Amino acid sequence: MAAATDIQTVNIIVNGIELAVPKGELVVEAVKRLGLEIPIFCYHPRLKPVGMCRMCLVETGMKNPQDGTIRMMPKPAAACTLPVSEGLVINTESDALKKDRKGVLEFLLINHPLDCPICDRGGECPLQNNTLFYGPATSRFIEQKRHNVKAYPLSDYVTLDLERCIQCARCIRFTEEISGDSQLAFRFRGNKTHPITFNETKFTSKFSGNVIEICPVGALTNRKYRFRARPWDLQTSEAVCLNCSNGCNIWFDHRAGKVVRINARTNEAINEEWTCDKGKFGHDYYNDEKRLETPFARTGDELQKADYATVYAKLLEAFHGDNTGMILGDSLSNETYITAQNFFTGQLGSHNIDYRFSANQAKGASTVDNSIASLELAKTTLVFGTHLADDLPIVFLRVRKGWFNQGTQVILATDRSDEVSEFAAHTLVYKPGTEATIAKAFAGQVSVADAAAKCGISEPELQAAITAAAGATVITTTSLNHEAAEVLKALDGNFNAYPTGANERGAQLALACDGLSALEQLKKAANGELSALWVVGVDLFSVGLPREEVIRALENVDFLAVQDSRRTETFYYASVALPMTLPAEQDGSYTNCEGTTQQMKAIIPPVGQAKPAWRVFEELSIRVNPRMPFSQASEILASAPAFA
Amino acid sequence: MAEYKLLLKHSDDPATQTLAGYKKAGGYSGLAKALKMERQAVIDEVKTSGLRGRGGAGFPSWIKWNGLPKEKVKPHYVLCNADEGEPGTFKDKMLMETAPFQLIEGMTIAGFAVQGDVGYIYIRGEFIDAAKALRKAIDEAYANNLLGKNILGTDFSYDLHIHLGAGSYECGEESALMSSLMGERGMPRLKFPHAPLPTVSGVWERPTLINNVESYSCVPHIIDKGGEWYATLGASTKNSRGTKIFSVSGHVNKPGNYEIEFGTPLKELLEMAGGVKGGKLKACIPGGSSMPVIKPDAVDVAIIGYEEMGEVKSMVGSGGCMFFNEHTDIVMLAWRTAHFYANESCGKCTPCREGTRWMVQIMDRIVAGNGQKGDMELLTEVANNVEGRSFCALGDAAAWPIKAFIRQFPEEFEYWIEHGKSPVTSKEALALVP
Ligand SMILES: Cc1cc2nc3c(=O)[nH]c(=O)nc-3n(C[C@H](O)[C@H](O)[C@H](O)COP(=O)(O)O)c2cc1C
Ligand code: SF4
Ligand code: FES
Fold first, then answer.
1. Average pLDDT in chain B
2. Is B354 close to A83, i.e. CB distance below 8 A?
3. CA B79 to chain centre
């Protein structure tokens, strides 16, 4: 057998079949090369193996290199912890192993409540599945089962049922190895051993939802989903999370046209198999009572239901030329941005179209040198002016993975310590507003002593961090102070100012932004100098602007069009309003922070008369200039060179 | 054969608990000799001696010693397992309390041989007196250049620390001991071939030597008098050399620690301890409560030696030798043993965590008078599913005795199951039942 040149391989024998596998690969993985599956509970490919549950027992032996005889070991061994070595012999099927597996499952089941009929996990439960394939048919256990805390609310999102727990430590290891908050641990010992938070405090991890999915039983359940459905009643569809710019791949589980839960969908390049809690639990807006279902038009003081034709007519009357503006949210589809630009500038003749609300964003566009996946390979990373776990949760997990797996040296410079400080080699907490100074210190443009004094950092600490950060990969967001961003960009290493809006990147690619900025439009509106303002998919009251300024702008603009999925505060100022579909209700594509464009298909029917924003723009567009409109989202994307 | 006091010699003379007294009794000549030898020669001497680990498993000590890297890259650690948790065993306690310098000297020689930098004595939490005795002795050794920098003017430097456990039998299992020493939960760690040997990557992922108190305490004698001399002790056995301390307890007239040469008949050990008290001999657990029980006919023929005890289907173990007279209720003994191991299971792996509790529940039911037909078979089956399937050997330690009790005394279990009460009805028996 020819061995590959770059990876060392060893020859092993699995169920009598010889094969060469990479040296050190775990037996549980190696046998998959033959299409074999060893039953597991505690083993998880993304967590360090622990060998606790003993479900994966196999027979092992050694082939004598001299005479080729095989000597088998008297005791079975855990396949999940055993690395392959030259001459290793593995048997995955035998009568003895059948008995061992039965034995382990019997042990796991004697104290398990067997409440599958009322358990959320029933139907998609590894314990059920393994029991079906390998377990005993009946129980010999006639004693009292171990009783323990049931339905214990670990947090607002996660419930713990300790009677169902099989003590596999997957949840604990997740918080230790992946999210890094180490909020879960075993308490007590022996058969009282169970996972819990320290002192039973609230489980506040920003990634808590993942433990629900990796728990091999129904011990950890999703409080937003508990008792809402049985898995086999659900339909599931591939989707992309649009709650932030990371673009996690998700399974969108729905029933009767309504979303019921979100699970992670594996994408090695983006989220691996994780999600953050914002994404996993933040889907209420789909079923929001305030969903906008019909168009509205104002008569006097009142907004009344109207039809599309009426509203379209009013829109086309109000909007033309450079005295009008359009402000879009940063989480809309690429198709929306492309058609908005075509329509608003091409047909209506206004260049005032924008999606940015911060002065910093307005100046610099996002610059990205690193894909998310490549961050785990960085030698040194400088996280600057962002709280990664909040702003870019999946980027956070990658940076941490790099540190955990291969020792990336992480330097954090920010206005308060956060999750990154837990593993950062250097944490610099600067006074808010001094970003530019500290950036210049990294670039050697100001003296370390001066910068330290100004930013409120000790000089030796700053010096040490600067020395360590030489050649570092910089990670920040598009909202970083512009001056600081420019300085950091000029440093030697890679520079990444990731956008944080769910499709900020797509907006940046599709929109020219060569007219009045959003802030300028609002200022003009406040002064009564803007005749019409069109607000698409954003509530101006929740973008961090002073309320009075927003109110003044909305009250002083002659005509306000609001296109949104729900009755936002802005909606109540509208002259006309149009209902908009949400991502799962429409075809569309979205470009995540690293620049990957991902497609989404309509999964559930739109609410009421809601339409995709791009369709509204197309319908209006042909009224101005009759032509063949785009009828599908895919045609729109193909038409835009920026997304080629 | 009679007692052979090699390690316990010092215990008779309280004066040896001071450095001066220990030296006067010949102490520290082993270290002085070792420091003049090549490191490898010290290891070879241990090899010649045939010393096997006294902690329970009887693993040849020199193989561990020889396993640490000769080219030192990282610091090397030397650990002493002084957790002595096995019920019936109390020899390490006595060795530490009455001959602390012997252990310190042994660990220092070991440290020299394996290029150790730091030694830790992991002491069972309850052994306050042992810890105090060692503290005093270590301080004295430091003050006299027998520990610390440049020991006896050589370039060998070595620190020795004491670490008190927090009360867990499992922390005597060597990898769990390392977890505990590092401040983690006292749970066992992956072992070879699932992970590198501790001699390559042990505590703090550094090369680590771990031996039992008694094992280290043999070392000064081996070096001082020579491995060859040591190997003459126990020469009558197949592969057990030197002396072994047995903690004799139970129904004997003179319970205590007895040091004997390997090859001594078990019967003689019983005689040394003054013979059975209060009745005829019924059973013996020769090597600590995890070892299989044997009956009087086996006691009569058993020869003390690692291989020899196998012939009567038991083991030398840690040397916690318990004798039971005819008034002993074996089922209650099994019940008590099952409770101990269930209480001490760390909870890491399924078979031990669940199996030990299940066995306890069945035993509880039997001694509550609710035994059922088939309980013996079920107990044996459960024990079989624990044995060899658990993460560490605690599962075996819990399974072996139960299986042996049932195998050796089936009629007592049958009686309990059928009648719901003890087959032992003598007046004396009542006092023994908890
Ligand atoms: C559950 C369990 C408990 C143990 N407890 C002890 C102990 O208390 N003291 C001890 O020396 N060895 C104990 N051992 C054996 C150790 O794991 C290890 O074999 C020993 O420390 C090695 O030293 P030695 O080679 O000198 O015997 C225990 C093993 C197991 C599986
Ligand atoms: S709660 Fe689930 S994941 Fe956590 S230890 Fe129990 S079974 Fe494993
Ligand atoms: S999967 Fe291997 S021991 Fe749990």
1. 96
2. no
3. 15
